Amino acid sequence: MENNSPLPFSAADDAAPETGAAATSAFAPRTDLSGLSRHAEAIRQELSKIIVGQHALAELLLTAILADGHVLLEGVPGVAKTLTAKLLARTLAVSFSRLQFTPDLMPSDVLGTSVFLPNKSEFEFRPGPIFASIVLIDEINRAPAKTQSALFEVMEERQITQDGTRYPMTDPFVVLATQNPIEQEGTYRLPEAQLDRFLFKLNVGYPTLEEEVAILQGHHSGLGGTSLERVQAVLTADDLRQLRAQVQRQHVEPKLLEYIARLVGQTRAHKGLYLGASPRASLSLLNGAKALAALRGRDFVTPEDVQYLAPHVLRHRILLTPEREMEGHTADDVVQQIVQQIEVPR
C-alpha cells in the first residue's frame, strides 16, 4: 500500500520568532474548524463500515471534495477503487451517477442529446448521466479520444454546450474516475489536457497483511456481502458549500505561495522531464493544501502540507524523458527530488 504517512511538523517550526501580543495573535485560531472536523469524522466512520484500512486514501478523497477537485484513482483490480468512490458518494446527500466507459461509448452517451419532438416541432435536450453532483467513471481509459474530449469542458468549466446552449452543472460537481495501470489491451492513453483537469491522481495499493486478514475475517463471518445501504448520508450540498467556503479562507503566508510556485516551476526546468506542470497545478496544490490543513485541524497551511500533496498533484501532470524512463525512474521519484531541492520556507 502506498505510504501516505504525514511528515512530522511542529507549528513552532513554521513561524518566525515573535513575542508578546504578536505571538498570541499569530497562533490565535482564525476560524472555527470544529464543524468541519465533525463532518469529516462522520464520513470516515461511514466508510469504515465497509472499507478496511485505506485511511490515507479516505483523507485524500475528502481533501479533494473540500477543494472542489476531481480525482483519478489508479490501481490494480480488486483494491476497492470503485467501492470506495461509491461509498464516498453515499455519505453525501447529493445526486450520483455511474458510467462504465467502453470503446464504443459516444459523447452523447455521456453528455446527453437533443431529441426532436414532432408535436412541438422543436428539439428538446435530454441530459446525460454527467448531470449529477458525484459522477463515478469506471475504467475511464477504455473510451476513445472522441469521448474523452467530451469531458474537457464539463470538468473545467462545470458546464456543457449543446447546440449553442449552455447547460450548467449542479453544485457541487465532482468526477471520480478509476483506471487499471496494468492492462493495456482495449485501453487508450488519457490526453494530457484531460489529466491536467484532475486535482489528484491517487495510487491505490494493496492492503497490509493485517488489513487483508481483517478483510478475510469479515468475509468469513458473513460480512463479505454487506449491503451498501448501511452507509448513510451525513453531509448535504449546503453543508459542503459552507465547508468549502471555510476552506478557501484558510491562512496562507506569502512565502508559501512563492514556495508552491517554485516547486511547480522547477518541473519545467528539470532535465529529466519532457513536460512540466502548468499553473493549474499550482492552483491545485494551493487549494489542496488549504483543504488538507483544515482536515488536520489547522487554520493555516504549512510547507509539510504542500510537500505531502506534491506527488498526488504532480505525478499525472509531468512526463519523463525517454532516458529517465529507460533508467527506471518514475514521476514520483522526480517529484521527490524537486521537493528536496527547493528550500523550505520557515
Question: What distinguishing features does this structure have?
Answer:
2 domains, alpha/beta, Helicase, Ruva Protein, domain 3, five-stranded parallel beta sheet, 13 strands, Rossmann fold, disordered N terminus, two-stranded parallel sheet, 346 residues, 45% helix
What structural category arises from helix and sheet content? alpha/beta
- CATH C-level of the largest domain: Alpha Beta
Shape: globular
Approximate strand percentage? 15-25%
Total number of domains: 2
Question: In the CATH hierarchy, what is the superfamily of the largest domain?
Answer: P-loop containing nucleotide triphosphate hydrolases
Low-confidence stretches: 1-27
Q: Please state how the strands of the largest beta sheet are arranged side by side.
A: 3-6-9-1-10
User: CATH fold name of the largest domain, please?
Assistant: Rossmann fold
For the record, the CATH architecture of the largest domain stands as 3-Layer(aba) Sandwich
State the helix count. Answer: 14
SSE pattern, N- to C-terminal: HHHEHEEHEEEHEEEHEHEHHEHHEHH
Give a short account of the largest sheet.
5 strands, parallel
How far the N terminus sits from the C terminus, by CA atoms, comes to: 32 Å
Helix content: 40-55%
